[in-house]
Amino acid sequence: MPTPTKGARLGGGPAHERQMLANLAQSLFEHGRITTTVTKAKRLRPYAERLVTFAKRGDLASRRRVLGILSDKGVVHTLFTEIGPGFAEREGGYTRITKIGNRKGDNAPMAVIELVEFGAPAKKAVTKEAEKATKKAAPKKAKAEKVEAPAVEAEATETEAVETEASAEGDDK
């Protein structure tokens, strides 16, 4: 459960904040991404992720709890039939917040909050990225070893040449 917020509420009172978060979550599930202020996006993230967790359960009690929060039955249906099963393999982290700069009128910091891609679990996506990074690093490492190997061979031939010169000078005496 999200931790209760301390200090001032969004929009005034706690009831208004609850309704604002419900409307923001409904818009997020309807459109997939919304642009809002950074503060609202940060408050919306745990709220929306909790609703997605209810949708992943998919039982009747969870559906009724979400229907008590979101007013649009079509959005709840979309949440339980498409979004919830899409995140079945993912353990949290269903949303992404990207800061986009300040609003023109009042210079408020703005952000885009969006649902991340379906079907790519967080751990698998991270391991795929790590594998790609190691593949990219492997050719560079091999090239570095190849560059060092001729240098070592050149040093060996130089030392042999010096030794042969020294032995030749020693034979002359």
Compile the SSE list and pairings.
Elements: H1 14-31, E1 33-37, H2 38-57, H3 60-69, H4 73-86, E2 95-102, E3 109-115, H5 122-172
Antiparallel strand pairs: 1-3, 2-3
Helix pairs in contact: 1-2, 2-3, 2-4
Description:
This protein is mainly alpha-helical. It has helices at 14-31, 38-57, 60-69, 73-86, 122-172, and strands at 33-37, 95-102, 109-115. The protein has 5 helices and 3 strands, in the order αβαααββα. A 3-stranded antiparallel beta sheet has the order 1-3-2. A hairpin with a 6-residue loop joins strand 2 (95-102) and strand 3 (109-115). Helix 1 (14-31) crosses helix 2 (38-57) and helix 2 runs antiparallel to helix 3 (60-69). The longest helix is centred in the C-terminal third of the chain and has 51 residues, at 122-172. The protein starts with 13 loop residues before the first helix and ends with a helix. The model has no long low-confidence stretch (mean pLDDT 82).
Q: Return the structural class.
A: mainly alpha
CATH topology descriptor of the largest domain? 50s Ribosomal Protein L17, Chain: A
By CATH, the superfamily of the largest domain comes out as Ribosomal protein L17
**Low-pLDDT windows of residues:** none
- Helices and strands, in N-to-C order? HEHHHEEH
CATH class category name of the largest domain: Alpha Beta
Shape: elongated
Mean pLDDT: 82
What Rg do the Cα atoms give? 30 Å
Biggest β-sheet: strands ordered side by side in the sheet: 1-3-2
Q: Kindly give the count of domains.
A: 2
Query: What's the N-to-C terminus distance?
Result: 92 Å
Q: What kind of sheet is the major sheet?
A: 3 strands, antiparallel
